[in-house]
Here is the input.
Amino acid sequence: MADSNELIERHIRRGGSLLAVLHAIQDELGYVPPAAVAPLARALNLSRAEVHGVITYYHHFRTQPAAPVTVQLCRAEACRSMGTEALAQHIEAHTGCRFDAGHPHGATVELESVYCLGQCALSPALMVNGTLHAKVTPQKFDAIFAAASKCVEVTA
Here is the structure.
């Protein structure tokens, strides 16, 4: 796995924009390390504040590694109309976690709200560790979560 400085160099040479480089770093490392802000700002002739502003503006970017099981639940209007808020309550009760509370060091589950996964006709939708699931019921969530948790236990 490359470090963020190597990724910055590689993508700047290819003419990458700030967003393209941030995506490349996160795709490879799983997050954008805070230490990458200054070198990225220098490489693109931007201020650190500008780079930090982009990272914090877009909810997609992380500044710390994700929990081993990350649930992203769509909370946009179409999913809301199809019961995503009741599903959110079920997920919180089932996992013992709260949405958008982050995850303390060592936590195995993180719940995040997102606003549109592009599955409006198949709502409610969610992603678990990057895998999209549609028409999710509480029972379907329980099965998806059990499978994701089992994978974490096996690799740990």
